[in-house]
Structure formats: C-alpha cells, structure tokens
Amino acid sequence: MSCGKCVAEKLKKQQTGIDMATKKILIVGASGLVGTAALKLFSNRDGWDVVAVSRRPPFVPLGRAQHISVDLLDAPHCREVFSSMGDVTHVAYTAVNEQQGNMVAGWQDPVQAAKNLAMLSHTLDPLLEVAKGFQHISLMHGMKAYGSHLWDRVMPIPFKESQPRIPHENFYYHQEDYIAAKKAGHHWSSTFFRTAMIAGDAIGSNMNSYLVLGIFAALRKEAGLPLPMPSGPSMITDVADADLLAEGIAWAAEAPAARNETFNITNGDIFSLHDAFPIVADSLKMELGQPESFDIIAELRKLLHLWPGMVRKYGLRAPDDLQTLFGESLEVGGAWTAPIAAADVVRYGIASTVKIHQAGFHSVIDTADMIRKYMGRYQELGIIPPVG
Question: Which domains does the chain have, with CATH numbers?
Fold first, then answer.
C-alpha cells in the first residue's frame, strides 16, 4: 500500500471512526430488490468484505461476495450462522416476509408482524453477541409506516419523518422498537429508510411491479399485440430505484449525519403510473395502443401460456414457473391499471425527501430514465427477450 493511501485511510478513520481495512457488511435479504442492488454495489467497492444471506441465491453474479442460504424464521440455524460472524461491522437489513396468497391483508396481520420481528431478532441477537466491532445497521422500510395502505384514512401530503405513528398493527414499528432497545447503552447506530414503489432487477421478489410490466409488454409483443395504454385517472406517486437505495445504504454506513435517523428516500421526482407505458413500449421497440380500460393482471394471465416457450426460444435465464418468476408481485402489479377516483390521484405515496438531502445524501434519478434502464437491464440479464 502506498504511503499516500495509508495517510488517506488513517485520515478517513479519524474523521469517521471506521477502519477502511476492516469493514465487513452482512446483507440480509440479498435476493430481493434492495438486497440485490446492495450486493452489486458493495461487492464491487474497495474496502468492503461482503456476506449475503437469503433463502434463494441472488439472480445477479455474486462478485467478491459470499452467499449463505438462510431461512430467517429458523432460529437455531440463524444462531449457528450468525454467531460465527464476529468480524461483521455493518448490516444492511432488507428482508421482509409477506403473507402468501393475500399480501395486502398481511400488512395488518399480527402473525405476519411477529414473523418479521422474529426474522430481525434471529439475525441480530446472535450476531451482536460476537460482533464486538459492530458499527451500524440500515433497515429498509416503506411508506406503510405512514399508513399509506390504510385507504379509509385521509393522509397528510407529503409524508414527513416527523409525523407520529398511526395506531395499527405494523411490523415496522415493532422493528423500530426492537432496535431502540437493542442499541441502548451501546455505541453502534441505526438508520431507517422509508421508500416507495421500488424498481430493481431481482426475480421472485414480492413487490417488483416493474418486472410485471416488463413481462406483460414482452408477452404482448410476442403475441403480435401492441402495449395498451391505460385510460382514466392515473395515480401520481413516488418511485425508488433499487440502485439508488443501495447508494443510500452505503452513505448511511459511514455518514455521521445518518446515525440514529429515519429518512424518506425516493428518486427525487414524482411520477404518473400510466406514463410508464409509452416508455416501456419504446424500450421494447413495440407499438403503443390506444387508451383503454383493462386489468393488466387479467390480460397478463391470458398470455402466460406463451412464457415457457419464450424462455426456450430466446434462451432466457428467467424461470418459466410463475411463482418463482414473480413471487407475490402480481398482487401489487395490478396498480398499473387499477381504477382510481380523481380525488385519490395524489392522496397516497408522496413523501418529502428534504431531510435526507439536508443530511448530505444527494443522489437522484429521473424516473423515466430509471424505467429505460431496467427495461434494458432485464434484456441484458436474460429476463425478457432482447430487442433486435
């Protein structure tokens, strides 16, 4: 190592309290949208050792990372795995367990909340017993912390981190309370991120609406049909690029301004869902149809018989099994064309990101550019057929 680099790392340690040569991050939920993005970022960043855990192996290459298959609901196995990780200094906790078959109902289910709290405790309880140099954990939450899923309530616009909790069953609150109690009297810190509708390049994830839209478009193109344009009012909402969220996790790992804070984090703009359709049609070089009323999930299911043949025809890496491909994403993917009253267009999903920008995180991305990026990446990864 050059003298200049030694001096730089020493200065960095003095400024941040972090030894650049001994950072090791545990990415929990590494096969999901945010976990996949964090895996890609940290495994290609100097100064970090990476261990990725998830039940399924990540779809993307591991790079320099090590992957361990772990079911976070299996307490004995978690204790065996995490009690051997005494050199971990950071955690990116992106795991979530959704209720199969009725994901939306699970968002207020005490049993489901207890599962998600157990997964976090099964990870941290044994880890913190041995990781004496532990410094920081980032946890990925969402706008349901503000009750965005409670359609019988009128929500303030925009959502701000200073808003009080809404009394209801919400595992985010349980995890927040657990972390607060766990770190009492210790020097490590936490950062909670609250994000919006996420786009990423994982498969089998429970909330990947953009994969639903991309595969729907690919199926329509294969059938010789245009991509229909939804008619009627379109929800205006926040969107979050998984790559940007990974950047936020990397920033929070070392930024003093992020310690023991909660931040909204989104792309930085707002987006009308229906505007994604012409962008996707252009990205896949297909015709955009006239506006019409339709149910995207019902129309997608009509064409799913084509999918196994497309996987073979184009040599795709994507699975031909529906559950493996989408996870529970079909349940939320219906939002692309769901009827919505004009009065509800801007009622939900708009969050202020002033706090995180003032704290020093300034990454943003135009959502239209993000959609183009992922439609291209789905082709590069062999999830949908290539164009041309």
Answer: 9-198+240-264 (3.40.50.720), 205-238+270-348+365-380 (no CATH)
